[in-house]
Amino acid sequence: MPLSFAPSGTATIPLHILAEDQLEAWLDTQPDATRNALTSQGFTGALGQTVSLADPDGAPALAVAGYGTAATRQRGRFHLAAAAPKLPEGDYHLVSDLDADALSAEALGWLLASYRFDRYRKQSPLLARLVAPQGIDAPRIEAQANGEALARDLINTPANDMGPPDLEQAARDLAAQHGADITVITGDDLLTQNFPLIHTVGRAADRAPRLIDLRWGDAGPKLTLVGKGVCFDTGGLNLKPGASMALMKKDMGGAAAVLGLAHMIMATGATVQLRVLIPAVENAVSGNAFRPGDILTSRKGLTVEINNTDAEGRLVLADALALADEDDPDQIVSMATLTGAARVAVGPDLAPYFSDNPAFVTALETAAARVQDPVWRMPFHTPYEAMIEPGIADLDNAPKGGFAGCITAALFLRRFVTESPYAHFDIYGWQPTDAPARPKGGTGQATRALLAALPALLKS
């Protein structure tokens, strides 16, 4: 079911948002019964506290939710999403002095809190529904929530039901929803159309590799999103240990993120010529799997020595990025669950990104802070270029030494974009523990920040 606000005009329950330093003044305006009820239940305005008061017939009459202090709010985000599951069933309208940005973030968090992944098991719905607060762009927030829900659904689906053909179908469904054009190159046609790295990585699997190419919009700047679509990663002949394979259904998280972002862009009617490229493969093990020591020639003509078949994501992205660059777009953005090194560096909550464009950095980080979608800049450190040059070939897909793994991966990708502005996001795509509006499982990262930054990023 789409994530949406409750219809306006219905009978609603007021939900008062009270920070700790606002509580006493608010209580002074309330009847004694309200003051006594909140006092008896120990309500202090602490973050996450909720109290619901009933009318004489037992129906909810009003509710309050604690908004804590500025210090406690800085320790997380989507604070009302923690309160929503504690409220009785009904439609609520917010009563608060939050500014438009904070209201938008809290409203989005409430919608995201109603997300349920129920494909394999029935889930209890969120009973408290929110009426869109005045002063926010409700359709835009719904578009963001549903783009995020799409990304979550794709990542959460196990690989037996989310292989390359299923990822293609998800892209086709999205294209049909928004009137976009889509073409797909599959199997050995990848070789005849010069996508050798995508074919090589995916050829060992029963489900054929493919390149998904979605286009939408005929006016405005040209934006190309490239998402890593490794639907399952065994590591290939450099086989992963079992524990490291457990979450590899999420190795198509970059593809999920760009499809979620594409939904947001198309649903909000942005003036942009959008292209989405997804190399969709499984990195499997069989007699025709590619081998350590192989030297492969990419679409761009650069040769790559394979020193680890488990560094396959950068290979499939390389061919897709070369194609993207040939179209001379105004901005290329790649998103991928690419390296463990990025997780070690910044953990699961931050989305590390690489860009050499100061205007891109400023626009993205300003937007990320405003929409509470955290990012962290990493360096395209050019002196490390030597680390990805093995001597026997132009590039090494897995430099030895263990240093700067996410940086060398990003430098590898940058070699395939020579004509267009380029930014790369090395995301995790997974929420390891439950948090407000972010249940354990698949998650989009940096998509809302990119959406908010688009006007500044794509100035003609």
TrEMBL record:
Coiled coil: none annotated. GO terms for molecular function: aminopeptidase activity. PROSITE patterns: CYTOSOL_AP. Residues 308-315 form the Cytosol aminopeptidase domain. Keywords: Aminopeptidase, Hydrolase, Manganese, Protease. InterPro entries: Leucine_aapep/pepB (IPR011356), Macro_dom-like (IPR043472), Peptidase_M17_C (IPR000819), Peptidase_M17_N_1 (IPR048816). PANTHER family: LEUCINE AMINOPEPTIDASE-RELATED, PEPTIDASE B. Belongs to the peptidase M17 family. This is Leucyl aminopeptidase. It comes from Sulfitobacter pacificus. The lineage of its organism: Bacteria, Pseudomonadati, Pseudomonadota, Alphaproteobacteria, Rhodobacterales.
